[in-house]
Q: What sequence folds into this?
């Protein structure tokens, strides 16, 4: 997946659909950011938090919001694992790294959430840190927006983090498939036919000879045009397809790793472990543990406006 970059991910039609669906389901915004964009305040495409928008319009609030988001993104880049952080107003932000192997190519950043229903005292404390706000009208609007912020209790929030973590795992795979679909019209017929055949039979004992009999070209010519078109060898292409299937199977806790190995088309457990770790960056067991390990690490730093 060397071709998967932030720009490729950001252009995916799936991303825009997911952002919209996520906001409709939770009331929370979602944004995909470059891993090195840590010094600018985040502008969401779907349903930004009205309270944070008002706070961000004040000098003290803008600085506090940017500090919170920058710290969260730096922490995510450093830990390469889901992270959460509290802001000065008691709101929670979530960040999920999007990884391609060991490369951190993007970060999914959520909008702001309350873990419990806020109280008037919570609002008064937030206003005190902002010096009361610019005027009475602003304070009235801020109060309404504060109590309209989505409330997701801890158990529900853990499920949201897991949902985002699974989506982050899926994004690079979707980018690779999208690339193949959009470039299908410039592929040689033999390569396009071979890829369909490989995808249909990758779960079995597939060999290059099987593919050659299907596409009716010589071994030398096929290997040459296949690598030129896809950027990788036939063997590597098959391994990557099998790893994608294995990652989906590992989501099912009832399946043993040994069952995943053979259902995905690998010939042995050692081969599976070696290929999976090379392409994903962690072992199959570690990958499954990471999915179960969410909720995200919670950073309890309380960002102040002072």
A:
């Amino acid at each position: 997946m060397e071709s998967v970059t932030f720009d490729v991910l950001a252009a995916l039609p799936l991303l825009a659909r997911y952002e919209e669906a996520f906001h409709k389901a939770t009331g929370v915004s979602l944004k995909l950011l470059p891993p090195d964009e840590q010094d600018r305040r985040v502008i969401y495409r779907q349903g930004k938090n009205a309270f944070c928008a008002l706070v961000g319009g004040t000098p003290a609030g803008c600085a506090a919001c940017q500090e919170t988001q920058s710290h969260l993104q730096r922490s995510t880049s450093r830990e390469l694992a889901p992270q959460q952080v509290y802001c000065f107003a008691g709101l929670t932000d979530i960040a999920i790294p999007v990884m391609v192997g060991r490369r951190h190519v993007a970060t999914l950043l959520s909008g702001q959430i309350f873990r419990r229903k806020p109280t008037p005292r919570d609002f008064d404390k937030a206003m005190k840190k902002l010096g009361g706000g610019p005027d009475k009208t602003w304070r009235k609007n801020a109060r309404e927006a504060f109590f309209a912020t989505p409330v997701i209790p801890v158990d529900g929030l853990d499920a949201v983090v897991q949902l985002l973590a699974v989506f982050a795992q899926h994004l690079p795979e979707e980018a690779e498939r999208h690339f193949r679909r959009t470039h299908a019209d410039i592929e040689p017929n033999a390569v396009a036919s071979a890829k369909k055949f490989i995808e249909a039979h990758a779960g079995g004992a597939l060999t290059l000879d099987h593919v050659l009999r299907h596409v009716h070209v010589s071994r030398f010519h096929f290997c040459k045009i296949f690598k030129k078109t896809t950027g990788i060898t036939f063997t590597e292409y098959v391994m990557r397809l099998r790893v994608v299937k294995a990652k989906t199977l590992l989501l099912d806790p009832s399946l043993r790793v040994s069952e995943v190995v053979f259902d995905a088309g690998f010939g042995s457990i050692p081969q599976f472990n070696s290929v999976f770790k090379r392409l994903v960056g962690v072992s199959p067991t570690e990958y499954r543990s990471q999915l179960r390990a969410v909720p995200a690490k919670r950073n309890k730093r309380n960002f102040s406006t002072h």
Notes: Residues 302-306 have pLDDT under 50 and may be disordered. The longest strand covers residues 92-100. The beta strands are 30-33, 83-86, 92-100, 103-110, 297-302.
